[in-house]
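quick one: thiamine diphosphate bound model?
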Amino acid sequence: MRGADALVRSLANAGVRHVFALSGNHIMSVFDAALDARLNLVHTRHEAAAVHMADAWARVTGEPGIALVTGGPGHANALSALYTAQMAESPVVLLSGHAPHDELRRGSFQELRQAEMAAPVTKSSWTCARAADVAADVARAVRIARSGRPGPVHVSLPTDVLESAVDASVVASVAAFAPESCAIATADAAAILGALRRALRPLILAGPASCTRVGRRRLAALESATGIPCVGMESPRGINDPCLGAFAEILAAADCILLVGKRLDFTLAFGAASAIDAKCAILQIDPEPAELERTRRAVADRAGASIVADAAAATDALAMLARPGPPKHNAWRDEARHAIAYRPPAWDRACSAERGKLHPVEVCRPLQRLLDRHPDSVLVCDGGEFGQWAQACLDAPHRVVNGVAGSIGAALPFALAARLAQPEAPVVALLGDGTFGFHMAEIDTALRYGLPFVAVVGNDARWNAEYQIQLRRYGARRLTGCELRPLRYDRLTAAFGGHGEQVTDAGDLLAAVERAHGSALPACVDGAIEGVAAPVVRRDAISA
Ligand SMILES: Cc1ncc(C[n+]2csc(CCOP(=O)(O)OP(=O)(O)O)c2C)c(N)n1
Ligand SMILES: [Mg+2]
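yep, here:
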């Protein structure tokens, strides 16, 4: 048995079924070993796409997502996608081939300080020291990725580690992959519930890891047990996330906020009085002491309980301990739910001022019918302004959005991995035209592996988010360089062998999307849209 065999057997024993990979000299032993294990390699067209797929797989299934790339440039290509997974709190493990130990610092082929490069975008990052450790290392990587605040982990695998002989006894046990847990003490949970009950307008905010389907169910259970509004936040728009409607009003009115695994970062204006009332008490439960310390520094005068515990387990523990809240909270909760569900009535009449073009709302709204058809539907949203409209207009049991990272480009790999995770449900990805270009070669991967999805492109022939910044900041006479050509992304998809249609009339959209879904191919519906700014939802008006 080689190190590579110990690696794949350990993964397969632990229940890993798919590894998202891109081949290269350093890792061909792993490809070879996978043949004999029950491990499917999804061979992608770009290393970042492989990591994005592992990320989406993790978010949709709750299982760890594993990516495998080659050393040097393969590893470097993968790194950007780790940032998206890190900010989304997604348990991803990146395994990268690596130059052999005995050639290091001698100018080995594709030699690179890989672990150091990956360190800032991972929870932990190291190079496997010897073949006998490889199985234990991968198990430890998965364990770290899933423990505490979930997130990516990297292990570099030198070729000597993968190709040397090892004893079969080194194969890792299933238990070695299990996450470590940090529960909340009952007394701490009771104290927090007490503080929330005493408040007039309490609010519970959760982070990106709580925005998966399982996470949202957990939050809904806590809301129904406590009667206190529980809100998951996963957008770089933070309090201006249009998918949270008029939430900013509620946040500003709250007098006691519990952060559960939610960072007091830029998404909450660092706790500034512009977003959160200067007298509002801030309680926090977080797996990372450093995060608690950061909050205490930011809001020293109003920091309440500050507890080290896992967010998911603490959410469940609070729900278990909670008694029905005082009646005063019912009206507040209804008010919060009403604000979050609010969308400007004008959206119902939204239509484009330009002939042959659609308003983003006209593209998004009809798709809800398709998403509602299945209990496991997946909604993927990505891109600039169009992605914001999509998130604001649509919902589905699984939402995979580009997230707090604010990094565009992952939609097609996300959709492909979501299809692998949900073989029967509609998988609909909404993305901008600029965003489509990042990973369009993955349409080929989708075809090779039989993984259909429907991509709906809001095509405004622009990097509109940046165009809108130029317009706001520098004025209409200083617009520069953000135009794209009116490319036909439907035709590009058809050229790959997929299904493609263009829509220029709102009335044709649903039928086109139905045909795309029915084609059982990776499909693109190109919606020619007017490039309008993303919405900022306020109850009195929509401002851009
Ligand atoms: C990886 C990455 N590169 C660049 C950006 C900056 N950026 C944000 S939105 C955007 C434009 C996206 O264009 P498109 O996908 O067409 O969406 P639109 O805004 O036009 O609706 C750009 C360049 C980013 N957020 N992430
Ligand atoms: Mg665009």
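Residues 432-434, 460, 462, 464 surround magnesium ion (ligand 2) (CB under 6 Å).
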